[in-house]
């Protein structure tokens, strides 16, 4: 049975406040910056195509939820700012997001789709680090308290991810429109 590498996310709209750090990050050696940024709610990994169709049908119930606001603030890194492997912008997410995430988890559990069950830490990945540098660490430290604006999430996506030598390429499997 064919499997599809997949995840559930919402998109981050392009804005001058977000474009600025992305452009600066692109100029730092050893960092790859995605062309489109999103916030991953749940990474699913390789899922049988049949189960993704079932998940897509179940996700229709999310359309009963209202849209919600996301505030972006502070740049940080995993595992830590002084030894970055992933560079991110922090995200504060308004309600009804927690209910939506609980519903998604119940859907995944009911379909026996594996996902990372660690507590959710809202962040927007803006770079993957191949070579940490003092320049990158300073970039992160200089922006750790900066605000990057807010936006309203009106759609949640079930996404396909294909790994290529140039990085992951994403495409939409399904779109869930919130109220």
Largest sheet: 5 strands, antiparallel
Total E-strand runs: 9
| The CATH fourth-level homologous superfamily | Cyclic phosphodiesterase
Helix percentage: 25-40%
Using only C-alpha atoms, the radius of gyration works out to 17 Å
Overall outline: globular
Provide the residue-averaged pLDDT. Answer: 94
| CATH topology description | Cyclic Phosphodiesterase, Chain: A
Q: Return residue spans where pLDDT drops below 50 for at least 5 consecutive residues.
A: none
Number of helices: 4
Using the coordinates above, name the CATH class: Alpha Beta
Q: CA-to-CA gap between the ends?
A: 35 Å
Strand content: over 45%
Brief summary of the model shown:
The chain has helices at 16-26, 49-59, 97-110, 134-142; strands at 3-11, 31-32, 38-48, 68-80, 83-93, 123-129, 147-153, 155-164, 167-177. With 179 residues, the protein is α+β, with helices and mostly antiparallel strands.
Explain the layout of strands and helices.
Blueprint: E1 3-11, H1 16-26, E2 31-32, E3 38-48, H2 49-59, E4 68-80, E5 83-93, H3 97-110, E6 123-129, H4 134-142, E7 147-153, E8 155-164, E9 167-177
Antiparallel strand pairs: 1-3, 1-8, 2-6, 4-5, 4-7, 5-6, 8-9
What features would you describe in this structure?
The chain is α+β, with helices and mostly antiparallel strands and 179 residues long. It has one domain (3-177): Cyclic Phosphodiesterase, Chain: A. It has four helices and nine strands; from the N terminus they run E-H-E-E-H-E-E-H-E-H-E-E-E. It has a five-stranded antiparallel sheet. The protein has a four-stranded antiparallel sheet with strand order 3-1-8-9, with helices on one face. It is globular, with a radius of gyration of 17 Å.
């Amino acid at each position: 049975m064919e499997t599809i590498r997949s995840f559930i996310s919402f998109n981050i709209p392009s804005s001058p406040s977000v474009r600025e750090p992305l452009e600066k990050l692109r100029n730092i050696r050893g960092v790859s910056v995605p062309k489109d940024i999103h916030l991953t709610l749940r990474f699913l990994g390789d899922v049988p195509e049949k189960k993704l169709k079932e998940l897509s049908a179940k996700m229709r119930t999310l359309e009963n939820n209202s849209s919600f606001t996301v505030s972006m603030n502070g740049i940080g890194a995993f595992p830590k700012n002084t030894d970055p492997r992933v560079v991110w912008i922090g995200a504060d997410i308004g309600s009804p997001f927690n209910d939506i995430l609980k519903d998604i988890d119940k859907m995944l559990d009911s379909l026996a789709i594996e996902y990372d069950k660690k507590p959710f830490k809202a962040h927007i990945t803006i770079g993957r680090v191949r070579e940490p540098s003092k320049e990158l660490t300073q970039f992160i430290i200089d922006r750790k308290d900066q605000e990057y604006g807010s936006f309203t999430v009106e759609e949640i996506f079930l996404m396909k991810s294909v790994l290529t030598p140039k990085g992951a390429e994403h495409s939409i499997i399904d779109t869930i429109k919130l109220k």
